[in-house]
Amino acid sequence: MNESSNPLPQHAFGESADKLLNDLEAYIPESPFLHELRNSLHQLSNLKLALDTSSIVALTDHRGIIQYVNDKFCEISQYSREELIGRDHRLINSGYHTSAFMKNLWTTIRSGQVWQGEIRNRAKDNSYYWVNTTIVPFMDEEGKPYQHLAIRNEVTKLKKVEAELQTMMTQVMQIQEEERKRFSRELHDGIGQSLFSLIIQLDSQLAEQPSPVLENLRSQVTDIIKDVRGLAWELRPSVLDDLGVVPAIRTYIENFCSHYGIEVHFQCNLRKRLDIRKEIAIYRIVQEALTNVAKYADVAEAHVDVEDQGEIIQVSIWDEGIGFSEESQGEGVGLFSMEERARGVGGYMSMTSAPEQGTSIQLTIPV
Amino acid sequence: MLQITDEMRKELNQLRDRIYGDLTALAFMSKSGGGKLHWYYVSGSRSNRYRLISFKVGHGIAGLAVRLGRTVTVNALLPGSIRLRQECALMLAEQLHSAIAIPFSSTGNLPNGVLLLGNRDVRTFTDSEVAEATRVAQRLGELCTHPPTS
User: Fold this and answer.
1) Which cofactors must be present for this protein to function (chain A) (predicted)?
2) Contact between B49 and A261 using a beta-carbon 8 Å cutoff
3) Do the Cβ atoms of B61 and B94 come closer than 8 Å?
4) pLDDT of the residue at A252
5) Is residue A57 a contact partner of residue A51, using CB atoms and an 8 Å limit?
6) Which CATH architecture has domain A13-158?
7) ipTM of the complex
8) How far is A298 from chain B (nearest CA, A)?
9) Cα separation of A193 and A201, whole Å?
10) All domains of chain B, ordered by start, with CATH?
11) Which residue of A has its CA nearest to B93?
12) Model confidence over B47-97: pLDDT tens digits?
């Protein structure tokens, strides 16, 4: 332990390999041992060169005090080596990660396990950069870590694109909803109303003079109205906008039962309206989840629970069907879009399933 | 409501035996023109879920057969089959992977009923099996004489 709290020798991390290589012959007589040693040192020196060219490397003691950084570290953080050594990583902390995240990192490496993850850091000029980080703890004889080697690669661009992609997804889904709403309204109020006025005209004709041909026509127009309304409803049920997510889910479940022959048990204590974007997210996720139940679960019953827990709305959709394992998961665009919908309104969604154990979808939406 | 007679049951049960099918089923329109179809009798079903299932003309393999007025086939080898299967609640409920749907008419006009043959594995139906089933579909059309009132 003493050794680790010593002020750091500048050559702390393999810096001495080259020097040793030069001095080898002066200390060790020519022998196969010398030969092997030279080879090993050579390899080590090459390895270090490769690592330094490719990655950001830092070595800290068990408390996280920086003992060594390579040039790449200085370059990206914009701090000089002198500014970094002897300080801890709080210097470049961006304040982005939760304390739980940092706690998990420390618990992992203190227990001697390798930690891997993405961290956002702050450079000297206050700009941010993302690094994909691997921290390897080195243990002493007592099994306590005395040093941590952190190897990082910059992924700022990747993170930026990832964030853009997510924003884009949310926007695309929003546009899709708007379009659906527009078409649904058009169908219902436009074509639907025109057809209805046709019925009224037919009725007045029929009142004057009964005719089987007109009767038949009237019944056909009625069927078309039903179809148009059905289509409008499928696109976007107006009840969702007018009365909220709970009546919308209720109606959806009714139709679902008569379409698929699956009984859905619906429990709900949500009595208030939510932000319409959140209501849409909940509705679409329930819809998608139930469709998946019908397609894959092979069950006669399913469950939907919507629970208002004050701060959050907890939605579960579950069945006791055939389930599936992670590996057998299909193309799964559905699941991806459900996750994105949840994320788009600040919530999150998780799914658990195992063969013969059914499937459960848990959705948490902040109020 | 359509009344299922013993003779209709017999036709469907015997057909299932003769074509080595896992299931034969009869759907009929709940009222003349438009409207939805319901499954009235299923021979070889795993559950009673079919009693709850209704579908629209044009939807799934059975609905499409009624709309087109011709036989429609679903099996894993044919393109577009996945959608036709997933839109057909009976195929999902009964875990059918191959099926053919043959429309029939009880009025002599547009189709208002459909006969479905299905298997839970991937198979093909021979021409003579299809011809046999088409004959049964016609017979069912004759047997469903009284237009149901709903």
Assistant:
1) [4Fe-4S] cluster
2) yes
3) no
4) 96
5) yes
6) 2-Layer Sandwich (3.30)
7) 0.85
8) 6
9) 12
10) 6-145 (3.30.450.40)
11) A298
12) 999 999 999 888 899 999 999 999 999 987 888 888 899 999 999 999 999
